[in-house]
Amino acid sequence: MNDRSILETHAVQGSILIAGVGASNGLGAAIARRFAAGGYPIAIAGRNAEKLAATAAELAADGAKVAHVVGDASTAVDTARFVEAAERLAPLAMAVHNAGSNRPATFLKVSEQRFEEHWREHALGGFHLAQAAIPALLKRGGGTLVFTGASGSLRGKANYAPFAAAKAALRALAQSVAREFGPQGIHVGHVVVDGGIEGDRLLSIRPQLKDDRGPDGLLNIAAIADAYWVLHHQHRSAWTLELDLRPWAESF
């Protein structure tokens, strides 16, 4: 099947929803740019109104049909609004859960509140987005639901207990949803991002890291976004449930 027939099969006019978009130089925005370049209308959602509006303006300036919604992906009310915004553009074709932060700390100093915050952002957020998006995808006759994971999805490192617990829960959620709704035409994917992402979030904290890691030692955000594009356009006879991405020099 050539690229054109794949695109026709997946109905380019369907909308793409990315929950967890902030700065323009971030993974959520990169995913939005990749799909906008492919002709899809885009709905982006995030908690930072200023960053979200700036990213939406950049996408629109490049010719994208874009809507943006400020809200918290860990709440059912807001994820429902995200899906509604995407559906106003076109029937939902794909939803991406890319929300959640990572705040490492020594385990004995982790508060119950901090542990629960990680769970809410990652696991509960993924749950709410899935419950909001799946009915729309079923109504359309199928589509794609992708969750952004991390190395913490597979193994817990020292000082990362809340993050690892939350990401492992999100991974299990993705597996369960895939087994229930794959036979109904919904391609569920879980992307394990195993390494540092070359974006504003990481480099604002550790600006020297890019030089320390050397050429292509961090994950390029556009390259990660290409993987999401591929997942959405896979033929259903060969769907990927879990995809892990890491720099060529990253140990694993």
Commentary on this structure:
The protein is α/β, with parallel strands linked by helices and 252 residues long. Helix content is 47%, strand content 18%. It has 9 helices and 9 strands. It has helices at residues 3-9, 27-37, 49-61, 76-89, 112-140, 161-181, 200-205, 209-213, 221-232; strands at 15-19, 42-46, 66-70, 92-97, 143-150, 186-193, 197-198, 219-220, 242-245. Strands 3-2-1-4-5-6-9 form a 7-stranded parallel β-sheet, sandwiched between helices. A two-stranded parallel ribbon has the order 7-8. Strand 5 (143-150), helix 6 and strand 6 (186-193) form a beta-alpha-beta unit. The radius of gyration is 17 Å and the shape is globular. The relative contact order is 0.14. This is SDR family NAD(P)-dependent oxidoreductase.
